[in-house]
Amino acid sequence: xxxxGPDEVAARLPRPRExxxxxxxxxIVDELADHLACSVLRERLRSDEKQSTDxxxxxxxxxxxxxxxQLARQLWFDWMWEKIMMQRITTILLFVLVLGCGALLYSMNxxxxxxxxxxxxxxxxxxxxxxxxxxxxxxxxxxxxxNLSVKVVYxxxxxxxxxxxxxxxxxxxxxxxxxxxxxxxxxxxxxVDFGLVLYGQYSIGxxxxxxxxxxxxxxxxxxxxxxxxxxxVPKSATxxxxxxxxxxxxxxxxxxIETGRIWYHVRLPYPENATKSGKKGSAVAWGVNETEKQKxxxxxxxxxxxxxxxxxxxxxxxxxxxxxxxAEDQRLHRFAVxxxxxxxSVTPSETAEIRFGKYTFHDELADVYIEMTxxxxxxxxxxxxxxxxVPSVFLQPTNIxxxxxxxxxxxxxxxxxxxxxxxxxxDWSADxxxxxxxxxxxxxxxxxxxxxxxxxxxxxxxxxxxGLGVASPKPTDPLASMLGQFINFYAGASGTASSSASYGxxxxxxxxxxxxxxxxxxxxxxxxxxFSTPAAANSFGMxxxxxxxxxxxxxxxxxxxxxxxxxxxxxxxxxxxxxQKDADGEIQPVTxxxxxxxxxxxxxxxxxxxxxxxxxxxxSVSREELLHALDVLQPSYSDGIFPTIxxxxxxxxxxDENTExxxxx
Amino acid sequence: xxxxxxxxxxxxxxxxxxxxGPSYGYEITQSVLSRSDGKFELKEGSLYPALHRLERxxxxxxxxxxxxxxxxxxxxxxxVGKKLLAAKRTEWKQFTVAVNGVLGIQQQVIPHST
Lengths: 665, 114
Fold this sequence. Notes:
The structure holds two protein chains of two kinds.
Chain A lengths: L5 H6 L12 H23 L7 H12 L2 H65 L12 E10 L11 E6 L10 E4 L5 E8 L1 E8 L5 E9 L5 E7 L23 E13 L26 E7 L52 E2 L2 E2 L4 E10 L4 E5 L18 H16 L1 H20 L2 H6 L31 H14 L22 E5 L10 E3 L10 H7 L6 E9 L14 E4 L5 E4 L23 E6 L3 H15 L7 E6 L5 H9 L1
Parallel strand pairs in A: 1-7
Antiparallel strand pairs in A: 1-4, 2-3, 2-5, 5-6, 8-9, 8-12, 10-11, 12-13, 14-15, 14-20, 16-19, 16-20, 17-18
Chain B lengths: L2 H5 L2 H9 L4 E2 H11 L8 H13 L3 E8 L2 E8 L1 H25 L11
Antiparallel strand pairs in B: 1-3, 2-3
Helix pairs in contact in B: 2-5
């Protein structure tokens, strides 16, 4: 027949299914075949063309009928639709059921595991409790008196008992304070038994065989219960710390530079409860400034030197004024009293191990200073400013980058090489020395006697570090005192010092000028002045010092450095005044002197470096320019960009005429 | 005539055609064609699915007979089918009255021969 014959129709039906009625396919095929046969017969009877073949008749029938296969498939699906859908729904439900059972099993398994873990933990705790044994029966004694023992162990893994430790016990609460203090030495087992004590709190202090002292351990004795108080102490009086500051490449190829070194002001924390190590008056490794609640040690170390604590000289009483160290807190001297000669070229290293006694330092950098000495003896110590994004009052070690160190080195060199600065300073110091000599005996102690002839035209300082000039009509004021303290750093080993020269010589710019920075904000909120001396570089002493400063005594006659936000022209003479922030936070000029004398110094153009907070330029600016500079900079303050304007103070009432006359002379 | 009109009446036509007695698919198409004066030509693609559907919902029952060596499937209206037919006749009357009323055609009463 054709492709639409019964066999072909049956073949095109879907694959037989198990739930399919046995006769469904045949019934459909037979029914359609019967219909088609009737249609063909009718078409034959209707057709007048006897030439029509069966194929032609069939084709006409199919043409009217449509596709028998398609109809058969439709009939088959109509019959099987419900069964098929039921099967699909059943399959889906079964799948969902399996998933649900799987999830349930997983959850049950997790719960079971957690339960087992908890049971294991509980079992372990029970075993531990069991191991503790039966608590001892309460002693037949008054409950307010109980036994206090102290066990001292080292902080090593084995908790080694400390034998021979002196253990001090003193009452802390009201009624325990009436008990006399007790002091005993620990046994081989590290135990000290103070016997029966009143209930309450007791302060325990220790002196260990390794020299470590710890205190402020608090033992609580409860009524009716004996107390065994364990104190863990450091096994070593020191701890190794690795210094990992990346250092810049700085070469000393300048013929004028004799030596140059980098000093690192390092703060190193040490274990809690530590007090001191070593003897009083010696350069000990530790110190606690309990008044500031800071437990750290501070000292200056050279880049590649090894500072041996035993080589540090004893701290003289007057030296303590430098760091405001008193005899009680044992704070380490702020300045290194020993110096090392570094090689001419300072090579960088990624890890510089600097050993201080038993320590090496690990990135506890607080400050970096550049110390530089010229061939003619001029010497300077400058502080490397941190990143401009962080106010310098909040020193962050990470902000002192190799680049800033490099810039500071260059700046220091530039400053040192400025002969005009030294010439002026020389005149000033000579004048000041004369004034002080006429003054009280106190002032003489502030002035160095090793001045010599300073006007030789070739060297500003005849031998050694030159003289001290403090531009103050009040030589005993704190500014001079601070300066003198600073100067002591250099005077000690200069060889030019006499008894009165313990404060003479050296210092920032030879001590003849005071450099300080002008900030828009200062922690004290009182002045806009921060003194850029090493002693005042950090929070140490600065706030107190600022409160004591009366800037009316000083005339700002020059700008030593400025922020990178403002650029001042070279070789321009200006007047300077001190800028002070008033109660409203407004920057106001403070008339500090009647004179508007001007420093005729050669200025260095400010270097625009975005990552260098201040570059050193020696200029003189007018009050208006300074005000303008602060006005310009002020919007930046809130952004954390902290401009620094370092000003040079000179003595009051110096005019152009006087200066020119002096120069002419 | 619009096939959509016929499709809505397919069940009615099939049941009415089978109401006198059993018949088979081809004969049903010819009977409807004849009684409608050639207006209603039931297509096989519609007829057989309708027949099977009516059979599944018990409105019709079927039986096979041999004819000239072929199997021929006869359909016969059931009691359920008769009820369905009566309901559909009523439904059709209501429909035509409503449509005529909308169209404004006066209803002609045609005697019904059972």
